[in-house]
Amino acid sequence: MRLSQSFIPTMRQDPGEAEVVSHRLMLRAGMIRKVAAGIYSYLPLGLRVLRKIETIVREEMNRAGAQELLLPILSPAELWKETDRWDFYGKELFRLQDRHERDFCLGPTHEEVVTDLFRREVRSYRQLPVTLYQIQTKFRDEIRPRFGIMRGREFIMKDAYSFDQDEEGAKRSYQGMYNAYCRIFTRMGLQFRPVEADTGLIGGISSHEFMVLANTGEELIVFAPDTQYAANVERAEIAPPAISEREAKKPLEKVATPNAKSVEEVCAFLDVSPCRLVKTLLYQTENDAMTAVLIRGDHQANEIKIQRYLGIHELTLATPEMISRFTTAPIGFVGPIGLPKVRILADHAVAALSNFIVGGNEPDMHLVHVNIDRDFTIDAIGDFRQAQAGDLSPRGGSPLQTARGIEVGHVFMLGTKYSEKMGATYLDAQGQTHPAIMGCYGIGVSRAAAAAIEQNHDEKGICWPMPIAPFHAQILPVTSSDEVRKTSDQIYTNLYQNGIEVLLDDREERGGVKFNDADLIGIPFHVIVGDKGLAQNTIEIKDRKTGEKFHVPREQVCEWITDIVKKRLESQP
Length: 573
What we know:
The protein is α+β, with helices and mostly antiparallel strands. The protein is 28% helix and 28% strand. The radius of gyration is 29 Å and the shape is globular.
């Protein structure tokens, strides 16, 4: 493709609206343009990247035995009401009515639709197992769309659904998709890590997220470097601390702490470490019940873990108004001693403490030398906090470490969550009816493109991995002499005939402008054609990612580029 005939509107300056690297560079490189908050047009360069990702995904889904179909974007409310998700999904669900005032939604995911298809068409165990997938636009009404196409209201996703006779078959399907995802992200040239994850709005028994590792990632993951254990912070388990011989209990004391509300203020006033202070967090649960959760001052509560333990779907941190109605203490001075009858949960790290500090349940007052059982009782001890670097791994080995990542894929073991509610059953060999065992598997196609940029960029622009780069090579004539133009055209034609995707910058622009745009767009190899090199019968080739330069004889350029591109592509599994 010739750049003079291409629609690649690059930008010289950083757009003010861009919050993250991928958003900034995709706008500047002419890959996307904003239509509305969280909604983008994909321009030709960006679409080429998406199509390459889709091809890799499609090839690996087919290789794993999945069959492609295309489900409707629009689905009736009745299907969602069968699984209770019409209400449970909340405001993220785009809802609309047709001219007959019948309720519909734009699909954020397709469990209901595909399960309805299954129950209409599958009758016998002989038709199982089956895995169906699609690549389609999805819609979620994000409360705050941000980060460009990383968190939009409209996005492209591959979603797959497996149906099996029994749990063993479902595990095989799940593992097959897990393996396929590993191949997909490896083929894309990305550094990634599968991590245990919470099932969230999709639900089910268990799940794994696939995280592209990047310093700019919005999610924190923890992992044990000498084991296979890895999880996101919502799911990450923490081994209980070993409890050595406890120190002798000291008499309980009330201490005035005027205007010291935060952990930092209280610790500074009392001259103690945050690990000696215990926060009492009040949560409003279903039916307006209150639960108190005790967390060490240097730790953060994990509301997903608390919800999972309580077996509820909603958990709200009490507002200052709720706290004042429920206790006699203002916010910052609530403690477990003397609370009205309420369920109290204590994190493992709190249960290991002696002589700690809590709020005094009255203004400007704390209690010191507090001990569980002597001063108050708790209802349960458990893992109720977020993991952090240095915590004990639940699988043993060395302490946990942290890294940042971007979720690009998620696989779920659904069990019978949807099949039971929707009557998606089959007859076994004895004529008995059973609900199908399901799994679902998603990949954010457009999100993966942005994640690839977050992981592969420098101060000049994008550095695309070869398998998903919009082009393999870019030819940069640095002067307008006849010899440079003729040689550039010849290299362009030869590479194109050899199956190399090549972009020729034939614009009437200065060399500096061409170099800057080439670095910004990030095509893996730059073929630089200039009078000085031609006088020595050589062409300079630059590796965009490493900056390494090669001086190749003019007659060998096509063979050199073709060979290295094919080697890099063939190195993928």
